[in-house]
Amino acid sequence: DQLEQTAGWWSPSLPTVPGAKIRFSFLYDARDLEAPTDDGIVAWVRFASATNQQVTRQFVLGQNDAGQMLGQGSTKGTFSWRRIEATLTVPETAERFAVFFGIRPAKGTARFADIDIQTEPGENPDHAEPEPEGGFEPLDLEAEVRKFIREQTDK
C-alpha cells in the first residue's frame, strides 16, 4: 500500500460527532514533482471511533481507495496554485478526525497553503442535543439562601 509510504503532515486529532459536516478548502502546487502515479500529492481525512478500533479514511485529493482520482487532474509535474474545496460527512462510528496533507513516494516539491477546515453539526437522530441547563430545573440561589436562613433561625 503506497499510503503507508507517504510523507507529509497530520493535523491534531480533533473531536467530532457522527453526521457532522467538515468543509475543506486549501491551495496546493508542485515543482518538478516526479511520481510513479498521477497522484503525487494527496490529502485525506482519517476518522476513528473513540477506541480507535473502527478507522476509515475519505480522500479530498489524489487517488482514493476505490481508484477514483479526486482533485483537478494529475498532481505531478510543475503547476501553479490549485484550489480544492470539499465537504465530507462524518461516518456513524467516528468520534475523532485528523487531516493528512502530503505526497506519495516522489521527487520534487509540493506545497499547501491557505488551509481552512470548518465543521458544521450534522443531523443525526442518535445524538440528541443536550437539554438546556443539563436537564435540571433552574436554581434561584438567592431564594434558597433566604429559605436556609429562615430554617436556621426558626430552630
Short summary:
The chain is mainly beta and 155 residues long. It has one helix at 141-153; strands at residues 7-10, 14-15, 21-34, 41-48, 55-63, 69-70, 77-89, 96-103, 107-120. The chain has one helix and nine strands, in the order βββββββββα.
Which keywords apply here?
single chain, 155 residues, mainly beta, six-stranded antiparallel beta sheet, three-stranded antiparallel beta sheet, elongated
Number of helical elements: 1
Shape: elongated
Mean pLDDT comes to 82
Rg, Å, rounded: 24 Å
Could you tell me the number of beta strands? 9
Q: How is the main sheet built?
A: 6 strands, antiparallel
- State the end-to-end CA separation: 78 Å
Sheet-strand content, in percent, reads: over 45%
Low-confidence stretches: none
